[in-house]
Amino acid sequence: MDYLLLALFMPFLVCLFWFVELFFTSGENRKAKKHLSFFMICGLFSFLGGLLYFKEIYSVYAIFYAGILILSIAQIPALYIYLVFLTESSPEKKIYYKHYAFPLIAGIVVIYFHYIYISYEDLIAVINNYFIPRELSHKQKVAYYADLTLRNGFVLLGIFYLILIHLKVRKHFRKVLDYYSDAEPKKLSWITVSTALYLMFVLIGATLFNSQSNPVIYKNEIIISLPFLIMAVIFWYIGFLGNRQQVNVIPAIEMEAKPHSILTEALRKDMVDKIKQTIERDKLYLDPDLCLPDLARKVGTNRYYLSKIINDEFGMNFNNYINQYRIAQAVELMDKPDIGCSLADIATKCGFNVYASFVRSFKKFKKESPDKYMRNYSRTCETRPCQT
Q: If one looks up domain 317-388 in CATH, what number appears?
């Protein structure tokens, strides 16, 4: 069995599977998934190029070279556009021109220098001697350096989009914290992690394979196979989470038309008291799905005023404001000597859908983990004199 061929083919098959799965999807998130399917088709052609190159099928590789390079460069912009369609209700139409401009320019450069400026035979010579440019003629070297510039540009583009994706994910999560009491399922940090892993192994692969003259690296099937197998795992991870991810649009909290367009001091104080009374009386914080509009309806105000008061008067976002009540309830349960239930049960009883979110909130408000708090409380109970 040709294990190298199998390793090179694995990420190609992963991309093909997720392209079909995502492209023929349905539901409210189908538009976002279409863009993730384009990311997969870009990956498919990129890995096809790797397969043709390392199996030394240069004649076929040269024919598809321009398409492979264009789609390889378009991968990360496609992932960013997928993120935009996940988090924005009406993305601007010029988003495609802005983010696919570089791949299109790269395509024009490649087509000119590799199919017009030099012949098909010259292109095969460039591909065959890519890491030994001293063997190339003058015209071949011009095409080689044009290609090298685009490849370095791809790395810089990847770093730029990694920063762009990270900033957009952070900005979106701040909106989530102002809107939902249970923010954990709305996190999109997996996209940042995926992009970082993807870029890291692109750079590792480039470092390894940019030494064709070194037979220890270039002729070692294990070294060649490993990055491709890891990339197959990364693309499976992106496809799996992307397929499960629901649209995550946060409605804009805009000032709604109300008789009192300006919050007077008296009205503000009355609203603060009403918010506290409503939450404490009805124990709304026990509802894990509580969100800003729900509380606004209960209090009898709109989302804009409610969000502004919570941020200004309590000095925290909606998520933290609700979670402080949940943690206070959890501490009350944990302080009972006959508690008889696990910390996970306590988290659920207090309105947390995700245990990790409970632990983070507990540390934030109590400055220690719930496990440590329970251990300290147990020791206190053991040394406490018996009540008679």
A: 1.10.10.60
